[in-house]
Amino acid sequence: MVALQWEIESAETQNQINLKGDLTRFTLFPLWQQRQQILATLQANSKIIWNLIGIQQIDSAGFAFLCELLVASAKTGASVKITQVPNQCEMLADLFDLTELFQTFR
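Given the sequence above, the corresponding structure tokens read:
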């Protein structure tokens, strides 16, 4: 198990959140605890990019939390995108019939 890490790169009109490690029920709690603080920070910018290139493993709990983060980010009025999506995310989106929702952020 690899601990989940995140880093926010901020620019004037854009924030990029880089996720690294495992996004599973065992590792997502620290990010879940700080989600409101992170989302409040992101609201000021017009574009939010969730970069998933560093995700090594994701389970159904991690995928559900990722979907929640994407939807919550979009509710701020920002343009929200995801990049470098691992195959595991695509498979979970298909499994839970959330491919259409997931594609809106591509």
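Residues 5-103 form a domain with the Transcription Regulator spoIIAA fold (CATH 3.30.750.24). Try to locate this feature in the token string yourself.
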